[in-house]
Amino acid sequence: MRTILRKLSILSGRSNESWLVLLLALVVLAPSICLLWFMNQAVQNERLAVRQKLVDAYRGHLTLAQEQLEARWKTNAAELDAEAKIIPAAMLFAQQVRAGSADALICFDAAGKIAYPDLPPQPKHEVRDAAWAQAERVEFIDPTNAAGEFARIGEGATNVDLAARALQAQARCLVRAGQKEAAISLLLGPLSEARFRTATDFEGRLVAPNAQLMALELLKGSAPEKVEPPLDRLKAELVDYETPGLSAPQRRFVMHELLRLFPDRVQFSTLMAEDLAAAVVEAQALQPAEPTLRPTRLPGVWQFASESGRVVTLHQTESLVARLRAATMSPTLPADVRVDPLVPGREREGALLSLPLGPKLPNWRLALSLKDQRLFDAATSQRVASYVWIGVLVVGVVSVLAAFALRLVRRQVALTQLRNDLVANVTHELKTPLSSMRLLVDTLLNSQPLHEQTAREYLQLIAKENVRLSRLIDNFLTFSRIERNKYAFDFNETSAASIAESAAGAVRERFQPPGCRFEVNIAPNLPSVMADADAMVTALLNLLENAWKYSGEDKQITLAASAVDGSVCFAVRDNGIGLSPRDTKRIFKRFYQVDQRLSRSGGGCGLGLSIVKFVVEAHRGNIQVESEPGRGSTFTITLPAAGSDPKEDGT
Ligand code: ADP
What we know:
It is built from 18 helices and 15 strands. By secondary structure, the chain is α+β, with helices and mostly antiparallel strands. It has a 5-stranded antiparallel sheet with strand order 2-1-5-4-3. The chain has a 5-stranded mixed sheet with strand order 10-12-13-15-14, with helices on one face. A hairpin with a 3-residue loop joins strand 14 (622-628) and strand 15 (632-640). The radius of gyration is 60 Å and the shape is rod-shaped. The relative contact order is 0.08. It binds adenosine-5'-diphosphate.
């Protein structure tokens, strides 16, 4: 029953302890989690605050950039109008494109008709005369003859148009007839004369550029010195936007053809603009002209009209963004920020702030962001680091305090447990000798008459129980003093032999044959030890008592004292029941008993060895057990000899 109660109390003690650990873990965790949350919030706030500071600092710059941009577009629109009045449309086109102000331009005349890029010229529907018709008829049958006929028409021609057309047709027939060289010299010779510069074919196109293109086509693959002069001349004519006459479609056609024929030698800076403008015109993608930036019907192409609407600049999204960005560049803009125009509907990730770009560029925004995000991080990281350190410190301190509290509470719990155990043990252990004494006394009192012999025997038994009781109480008192740190030792240089002899003397009378053989082997010339003699005798007595208690009918007990390497060893050997290796590790714990029934019959309560250990350790010694179940045990106490340890001061 007592065992069960004891186990229950241990179990309840353990479960209490796990609750305690859980509670303390909560005490640490809850504030730690709260703290981490607060820190996280603080970090966020810090980032927001830093961001706000940056926003405040840079807002002025962004507003300035925005105003600058708006003004720039206004001026552009006005300038375009002014220039449109004095510069021919084609020239204005080339000038703006070359200056990079727009990707393309569409210019209108005063009547609102497209002036550039103009539409293909209208065919002239001129009636070919009989001679021309005859020459055309034989062109495919007899090209040489046809060439002669066209030559004759040319010679007799009264206007330049007809003369040029006849020369062109003659060259064509010569090519058909396989006379390539003759055709080339015709095309680059007479047909390139200045008088034919404005001559047009039946379709209304200029004859000269087409003739030169034809010559170059025939020259393809010839030596560069042959190709380059006519090629350079034609290229110069194509990029000449000043001389009127060449229509935009013909210009584009010849440019593309040249690019196809001589991709490595030809490049036209205005060709992309020509294509873009033509595409917008052909697709009728232009919105009504308004002096604001707005999308055309062609995806990715924007239009911006001058105030009067006579010039519409065209911009592709990417180059427009680049153009706007360039316009916002200002020497006053801090080096660590960048300003980006934002296409309507798009946002820039990580931008500090964005503002609308104003009425000239509706729905466009201007965003300001840091060039290097690390700058922002650097601005906040210092504060964040200090928060993190504070957090770590607080969590650390809370954890240390909790661990400290846990230790204190554990100790308190252990003490309470101990007190309970002690009370339970004391009452129980005292009850046994007291009951047997009471029984003996009652028997004596009830004996009529009282025989002296019986009385003596009973009194001897009572005395024995009394001794047992005293020993128990001594052990309890010693233990209690130890636990309250009230046990005071009185260290003196003492003869080791006298300690062993005192202990042996105390038991010698009891440890006598026939039931017991008791041997005492004290080596001669033992060194003295710094010891509290009474405490050491008590320790040896406890070992001797145990040797007696835990040995059978035929006891052989030896107490030996010897000197080993500057120490003195006291060994108590018995031939008793012995101990298992597992128990030898536990027997020094307080209240530990291998077999409670056996211990109690010998008047033990599991405190003896814990007291011995305490006493020995207070003497800076140690105690060891060698034991084997059924073969007896040897308990050896080793104490340093006096003077062997200079630190020992006897207190
Ligand atoms: P107790 O008062 O029960 O003897 P101790 O602290 O003196 O308490 O001993 C603890 C336990 O160690 C004993 O209960 C016993 O089981 C075991 N023990 C101690 N000395 C011996 C020994 N010489 N032989 C066998 N077992 C022993």
